[in-house]
Amino acid sequence: MAKSIDVSDLDIYYGDFKAVEGVSMTIKAKSVTAFIGPSGCGKSTFLRALNRMHEVIPGARVEGRVVVEGQDLYGDQVDPVEVRRQIGMVFQRPNPFPTMSIYENVIAGNRLNAKKMKKSETDDLVESSLKGANLWAEVKDRLDRPGMGLSGGQQQRLCIARAISVQPQVLLMDEPCSALDPISTSAIEDLIHELKTEYTIVIVTHNMQQAARVSDETGFFNLKATGEPGHLVEFNSTQKMFANPDNSDTEGYISGRFG
Amino acid sequence: MTRRGDTVFKSLATSAAVLILVALAGVAIFLTLEGMPALKAEPDVLGGKGNIILYVWPLVYGTLLAAALAIIMAAPLSIGLALVISHYAPRKLAKPIGYLVDLLAAVPSVVYGLWGIEFLGPRLGRAYAWLAENLGFLPFFEGPASGSGRTILTASIVLAVMALPIITAICREIFSQTPTLHQEAALALGATRWEMIRLTVFPYSRSGMISAIMLGLGRALGETMAVAMVLSATGVVTINLISSVNPSTIAANIALGFPEASGIKVNVLIFSGLVLFVITFIVNFLGRLIAARGLVKEGR
Question: Is residue A104 part of a domain?
């Protein structure tokens, strides 16, 4: 189910503005890949380009290729809706649907796919998804309560449960812990460790310790100068990145000399 | 210590609030006092009707029927239009469409009346003839069809066009306020645009949509000139929508009857005005109630 992603020479534009330039990398299946870098360096934009979410902004487009299992996501025949069904996303701020219960939130994606499911099947799906997101024990007695009634960390895990309930091939996480307290953060990080046995995970984070803790490989993005597009400076195994990076800019950023 | 600016502003704001209440109370008291004599009106000033209730009832019926038909037509159209402007049309196109719809609200009702009589009526007359012939088994289209097209259905269509900009403008605003966060959540799950709208925009906007429709309904209930011009009213109670025998509305009846009214006839018209006042009050109140219930349900 988990798949690798091959990105080659990807440029991302917002209208005439080039936000990200010339990114090539291979994201391995069943591993955690982290992107770090200063604000505005295009790492979130790049992440969103991996499931075509950046297209929500009018004028956004890409040049280059993003290939998942031999299929170019930007091919002429490819429907972005289909791409997003295969590649799930968790956002910076928890965003459960406010009018839905916990139960309804988890199965929202399956409802969309218009699959007719028996009550027992959806019950099982809700249980397995919530267990997968380490939330089952906390909410199993109040599945019919609004999702917004949970704490921030629980809401974020609910969003993860919602994302994995449609069995995506890849899970993208855009700073999933930046709005959470340390304990909730630690719960999510533990969860990421468990999820990578089944999913390919790509995570953007501002927290370098977090990248070091959760990821197998790390990409460092930076701007050449203000107003210039962001680019990928170095992509290496996390161990190497944090111990002995190839690039002096990476070392400078990681050791806190800038950024 | 009090600052002069604060004091001045506070008294200005307070007096504005009080003024509104005084004006509303003044209208209500006037209508009630001047309307009361109508309770004792004789059939000769009531168009042959036995008492004031029998006189007002067909008007109430016509008012509610015309307004309800107008909203049935205007509400789905307005919501669709608002969605096009807020979510479907490219930004370059959405703005001009929005301006055009707003412009509809600026057209005086007399102009709508003229349009209804001169343009819409005759053209619809032919459609009504077809309806009477082919769908005559439905009570609404029983016929005989009015050739001039000056029917309650035509009046409702004019009212729908007039209510459209109000409902559209409000819905558009609420739709575009749906948090991006929730819309992206839906899209990231693989929702199409329509699924995203159903999943996030509609639940978020439900109470606002109801308020918008209620405001449109208020406009349709109170509209006077256009209905007075378009409708050829005979004061019957019927669900036949396309014949030349139509119920009148309270507002149109007052506008048409007032110039020649004197003595107790004036009180009769004022009494019908009181009834309209109460109806709009109830409609608004119900609208607020439903909107408030929606808010509570959303939780926050």
Answer: no
